[in-house]
């Protein structure tokens, strides 16, 4: 299996994504914005469809659409403080509508399909470098704002009283979510990325005691899910993204069963 | 003469379904411990929101440390312990030690976690998760975290709800000590009789306005 260049690359990309997804997934889960990953994944599809329709790089369209969608979620939720989850529903509906319209305008469903279920074993050089660049940005920015993010998720009111600029922090975090989801949607699939954002984190929360421990354990679990998924999909000739997410769901089921015992 | 920390005059605030505060006025001086009472829905939490700058009044003025409050007002000198936040703490995956360390690191406070916990009677609880604490213990953690800031104005929204009388007494003593050191404290409470021996003044919020309760009604304050 590892004698093939495309499989080695798939393992490298999978490991990188599996490492950064929990950094984004844990705050999303604690902010009760689990729908956000799903919404941005659909926005990325709309961006891909727009890119294909107007003849520019679909991945670029995906990144732009995710950034615009995340800003839209932030803007709507700041106006509807009592019903913040509605913001994701509104942007999700708009994204699905746009994706549907532009997909029918492009006339080609093959490219769209590769984004729905991902194509981690057909990563090109540009995409490979993009994954590394995005992961580096996410990691560095996360490390710079980790304490502020922790405090803000813990108690937003107290955080703003400590001088933390909530709007700037939320904007930065939304940007990180947007670029992570758009790049992960291309590789592991837009239908799957939101699950991989939160499932390893939920698994880790069953056992870890601290925030840091939850983060580290969810990274380890995420890497295991991706690697096992890649191996199984290679030998069974299945779509890697789909297998990865099913392995993750299986892992979560086992974790919850063990926890109950 | 003591500095006026909070000065509110003729403050009006309405939600879509009606006026909550109608011409409310009050002052709070440095080193004063003030109890704020009122029926549920009287507007106590709205008043807190206004002081915190989370909502803006329709008219009237609200001055914090001498400056007119605005959306951009800096609240570094204000600490707030809310009921809502405490309910959310239980689901946050962290240990008390980690929580205090992150707060201390961010605030630049050099303190020993064990000693901090001893201040609120939680010695030896460093490794406990927030989800493993009782309601009263969570209240103490919330208070401790708010006090790490060393703020000049401390707002507490019903901090003794769900905690036993022994710790309530300790909390009032702690707040009294802080007021004696020059901090100003606003204590929203439904248990004025319990706090009576510690507060300087008691105000009741009713029909959108504040009225000072006569001292003999709540047995007088004691510094």
What's the arrangement of secondary structure elements?
The complex is a heterodimer of chains A (261) and B (223).
Chain A lengths: L4 H26 L3 H21 L3 H22 L5 H22 L3 H8 L7 H30 L1 H6 L4 H23 L4 H13 L5 H26 L3 H21 L1
Chain B lengths: L3 E12 L2 E12 L3 E5 L6 H8 L7 E6 L2 E2 L9 E4 L1 H7 L6 H12 L5 H7 L15 H13 L5 E5 L7 H16 L3 E5 L3 H4 L5 E6 L2 E4 L11
Parallel strand pairs in B: 3-8, 3-9, 6-7, 7-8
Antiparallel strand pairs in B: 1-2, 1-4, 4-5, 9-10
Description:
The complex is a heterodimer of chains A (261) and B (223). In chain A, 84% of the residues lie in helices and 0% in strands. Chain A has helices spanning 5-30, 34-54, 58-79, 85-106, 110-117, 125-154, 156-161, 166-188, 193-205, 211-236, 240-260. Chain A has 261 residues and is mainly α. By secondary structure, chain B is α/β, with parallel strands linked by helices. In chain B, a hairpin with a 2-residue loop joins strand 1 (4-15) and strand 2 (18-29). Chain B has a single domain (4-214), classed as P-loop containing nucleotide triphosphate hydrolases (Rossmann fold). Chain B is globular, with a radius of gyration of 17 Å. Chain A binds chain B through residues 30, 147-148, 150-151, 153-155, 157-158, 160-163, 205, 208-212, 214, and chain B through 52, 54, 74-76, 78-80, 82, 85, 88-89, 91-95, 98-99, 102-103, 105-107, 127, 129, 145-146, 149, 151.
Q: Average pLDDT of chain B, to the nearest integer?
A: 83
Care to count the β-strands of chain B? Answer: 10
Q: Assign the CATH topology of chain B.
A: Rossmann fold
User: From the coordinates shown, what is the CATH architecture of chain A?
Assistant: Orthogonal Bundle
What is the H/E string of chain A? HHHHHHHHHHH
Number of helices of chain B: 7
Tell me the strand order in the biggest sheet of chain B. 6-7-8-3-9-10
Indicate the structural class of chain B: alpha/beta
Give Rg of chain A in angstroms.
18 Å
